[in-house]
Backbone:
């Protein structure tokens, strides 16, 4: 089994972004023994027997509209305090190798119909898999958040979608077109962003039909990670949360994207869902996402929670989380690629609800308490270990 | 069964303190339908079938060296923002009834040997049980934190202890003398403070011999509750905590007691233990406890956590918890009395490690992650429900 | 002089609101020796010789559309933690007396033209002044924030305004109609809100012509008070503020009003102005105002400031201000009424720029540094003391 | 005048420490036009006409017991995030030049009497001044904080001190021995630390006799800077501070030194003095200084302030200051050297109380409000500009 699984591809949508660059550089650092596994969930106790491909056995490629080569992106991330000094030089060959596997993102609406674009995407992925003789490839979306998608009747079923695409219609948002291309190429799919991606009935139906697993969406790396950790404590203690307000200050590319109210709407909704589902009722409070360029690749979240204790005494909890977005996200991308690849190998199909631990808005899962999600994840890993 | 369990006594050591007064007034409010069960763990889903005595069926008595009557103490707690306006008047009869069952705390070192004092204490408790025809009584220590106890050879075994007491020696700290008296009176015992209480080999041996259960120690109502909630998140995510520093500002009686460095030593130690045991290694950082009279019955904890993510990027989390100590502690006192009474009824003896969810320094338990402790507690409650 | 100034009226627009009720109850408490002068600027050293009317010599009346009597409003404020227990009973007569001087706010747009409405308002004020034989009356706007006013050509000059009013046109926002009425009644005017009030060229011209002083606008009681305190420190140290972000959580009536984006626009603008003017350049960062009903009469502001030090090292400061809005505002209302009355007595006319210390958006002033504003205020008070 | 003042020496006690290295590298960067003047007080408006030597005209030397060369120390500070990448290479020659002027700190108690040691120190300084043909030298203490000094009768007067030294006695703490050596060498002296330094009657007397100015002590770069900024706001508003508690988390060398309770005692005292003097009464609250190695050269201060508003309503303010100690201190060292040099040139002698703006515990000054201190500093600078 080890031989078979030893060659796993990771196809990154947004392959020149900060998260992707950190993931590629980090995997190379792990392979070379230059870094510890800090921040890697599946390198902690409980996962060694799950049969996952090793981080060092991952092969990277992807799509991007940006052109800056990965070695240069890595140097930019050193200046931003995301990557350690000297690392880009030490893993230069790996960066160059991955960079050579990044294809320009095919654009729709310039003469090419979405059906054709998807075939080009799928062909790029398949060619990558064949060229490197990979057992399988996981497609991971780490591109910028897109605006909330416009509903369309073609989203309702595989048949409706295929009819529309065959007619040359543009019916899918970009993230879903990538998800569709992943299915066309026979790949598992992970959505690390809040974009629509695989979350359309038509695509869910196709994934089931193709026997392919997928996971998502919206990696949990800050405020929502804390919400998922703290909300169960309030529930277990019977303390009634009256309001949970949050402000997120983000620099970097994601902050700029999310300053667009349309994208923010998508993000904010998934951020508050965890509370309502843990508490069993809607909770007052707004979530703001502000773009603060001076923060660079860092983000700061402030949350203020008003809660009632015994006999209605009103108290509060505040927290401030100051984190480096790419350093929080990149190891989870490696975790998810490894878990999705192994699930694909084990024949899992459809939504991987057991990966809810990683996501703000977990597909197919109702559980939002972090430690229960973690128990579910470990059970899942144990099951993967027993497979074959 | 309901008839038998319907009369349960709660004997409060420190019965005129803020926590005790809030517990008595709160139980009365619950009985009268004047308050909701906010903050009561065993009133949340998962506990109704555990066969616990109802909060309204608890009968209160206790020891204290203070003389202020409970109705007056309750008015003071209204002024301090702990109890709602008007509540003392509405539950006046219950306060008066409980007040009539508070006995002056017998003091050692004034002629009476500890053995005699313990018999007086036990007789007070037994008389209370008989007078009210109670099925059983749980002794709960909610008095001020005492200094770290001086070790003594008589602590090592039941035999050594009984020999020393028979010889008129003063070998037990006050909290342990109360625990001993509880055993003499045939009662379960709960230690809500960090004082020594039942945590001496001699007393553990006696409890086992007498077939009595006990639980402790040091109720988890603020900073440590958050530590037990957050530390497992860091561990699950593979994020390395480099330092966890904390400052606790306390008004009220407990703040004043803990300003005594000897008492603080006891408290600080149990506050840091949770981290070392969750992380599997000691964690840098100091814990301060400051007495700030202007805070009244309130406390504010600030914690600052430095942690490393992927590739060693250093990040931080800060939180501020502003809570009302008595309102946080009192419902847990009711929970613990109900659980310990039911455990006693079910024949449990020795340390109730399944109650770790409630304590900073859980006797007999290694698990410090809050949600695992909560799962253990629910399993325990389910087991109690199946008994008989 | 003391005799003449001993009878000063304060006419509150929004006289049944939390701020007004707290001001009336507080002045009565000061008169009766039941309270200390905490929070009263003009009772601190530096003001005793300014010839101000004493707080206890103020006589209150006002307009409001609400009908709840002041004694009942005061009880509500006790429950909210704004007024001390027992105070409403102790100052009951004063509350009743003031309540008797509150007139229903005349509404425009129901048949009556604005000119008529203003005359009714002015007549109410004049009648109050005569009935109590007051030396003078200061009109203070403490009503809810109104939406940003629609510009109108009639705002441009006294002549244009009077022509429009004479023609039966509705050209003034409510706050400006009250300001106009104050001028018609020969009163000084203070705007404690961010509403338009006196800030129209037509009204400024009329105030000058009538020889009446006015002050405003938008009392500085939280986030902006801190901005005005901290921004000069950054400037003096040469530390470059790169971003200043703020979130304000407000319960109570003002929070609800400000949840209306139109009102918030008005408030946010005045909150950021202090930074731009102190730093000499615009500063990045958004200001949010959220309505959080669970906070009651309290507000919490969180500000996050990113700044650069020597050689471009990026650092940050965060603060959280948790204050009771009415308790912060009410003593300033008394201060401003006393100062404006004395300025009126001394013959000052037009904008009282020396009162910038009190306001987010000080009329006629460029200085936004708090301690410079305080020096200006003390100089102003010294000047008032020397007058006559 | 410009010619004469153009060659000013800065003799750093602790010349290989982080603050000293940052000051030397920063002055070189300013001279070369590689950096802006961020964080430099005397480069802001109001100081250009004070006749100060330019930062680029300062010549550096000093004493240290450490041996790591400045270019290597600068690289360490790059890794710590204090100096920008690439800067050490760009200012390499300046670092080497300054490094060549660092002498091993002469130690007392190894055979040499303190009198001899002081002469060696003074000779090192004088030799530096002559070798570079400097108009004058300012000695600045930026070494580690020393424990609170043991009082000795020889501290009481110049005569007593000189008698004791002549007798071969060891009576001065190290910081005061350096201050004495500065006087012997005819130099102005600045104490940037809380150590005793010039603050002995004997040394004050000598400084006056020699006609030399001095300034100190304990540079204000974090918590105390905020205290000096915020406390006057509370006072001006009449808000009563009931408790002001603080916790300082420090990495780096100073944190380690201050973990020594003896040194901490010295530091904590100067940190609370500002409150008592601004408020006119002692203020409750403790100050903690914790050594947290994971913070490196950074520090985080959390302060919690409880205050009362109108009618006794209790409110609070919290702040967290996250700063880089060396980047905050180094530009002030340059400011102080320039100001002290100019004061020396202008014939000022004794304590420079007008420099209180820079210090936690300003010698010769009672004023602790930051903006008043800033006004005093600007007046002082204006006076220096008018001299000769």
Residues:
């Amino acid at each position: 089994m080890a031989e078979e699984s030893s060659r796993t591809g990771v196809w990154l949508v947004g392959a020149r972004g900060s998260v992707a660059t950190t993931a590629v550089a980090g995997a190379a650092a792990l392979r070379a023994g230059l870094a510890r596994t800090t921040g890697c969930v599946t390198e902690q106790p409980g996962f060694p027997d799950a049969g996952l491909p090793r981080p060092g056995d991952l092969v990277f490629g992807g799509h991007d509209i940006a052109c800056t080569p990965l070695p240069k992106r890595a140097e930019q991330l050193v200046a931003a305090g995301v990557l350690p000094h000297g690392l880009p030089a030490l893993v230069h060959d790996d960066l160059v190798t991955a960079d050579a596997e990044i294809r320009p993102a095919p654009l729709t609406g310039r003469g090419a119909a979405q059906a054709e674009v998807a075939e080009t995407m799928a062909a790029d992925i398949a060619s990558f898999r064949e060229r490197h003789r990979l057992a399988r490839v996981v497609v991971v979306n780490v591109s910028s958040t897109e605006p909330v998608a416009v509903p369309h009747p073609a989203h309702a079923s595989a048949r409706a979608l295929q009819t529309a695409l065959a007619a040359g219609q543009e019916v899918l948002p970009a993230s879903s077109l990538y998800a569709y291309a992943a299915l066309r190429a026979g790949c598992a799919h992970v959505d690390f962003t809040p974009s629509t991606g695989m979350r359309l009935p038509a695509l869910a139906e196709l994934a089931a039909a193709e026997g392919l697993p997928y996971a998502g969406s919206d990696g949990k790396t800050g405020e929502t990670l804390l919400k998922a950790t703290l909300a169960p404590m309030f529930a277990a203690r019977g303390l009634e949360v009256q309001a949970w307000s949050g402000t997120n200050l983000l620099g970097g590319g994601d902050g700029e994207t999310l300053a667009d109210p349309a994208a923010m709407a998508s993000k904010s909704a998934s951020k508050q869902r965890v509370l309502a589902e843990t508490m069993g009722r809607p909770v007052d409070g707004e979530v703001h996402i502000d773009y603060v360029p001076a923060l660079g690749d860092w983000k700061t979240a402030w949350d203020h929670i008003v809660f009632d204790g015994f006999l209605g005494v009103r108290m509060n909890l505040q927290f401030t989380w100051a984190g480096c977005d790419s350093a929080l996200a990149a190891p989870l991308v490696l975790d998810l690629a490894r878990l999705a690849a192994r699930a694909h190998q084990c024949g899992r199909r459809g939504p991987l609800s057991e990966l809810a631990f990683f996501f703000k808005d977990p597909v197919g899962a109702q559980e939002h308490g972090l430690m229960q999600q973690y128990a579910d994840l470990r059970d899942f890993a144990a099951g993967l270990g027993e497979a074959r």
The interface with chain B takes residues 242-243, 245, 247, 249, 284-286, 288, 290, 292-295, 300, 302, 304, 306, 314, 316, 318, 320 of chain D (CB under 8 Å). The longest helix of chain D spans residues 325-345.
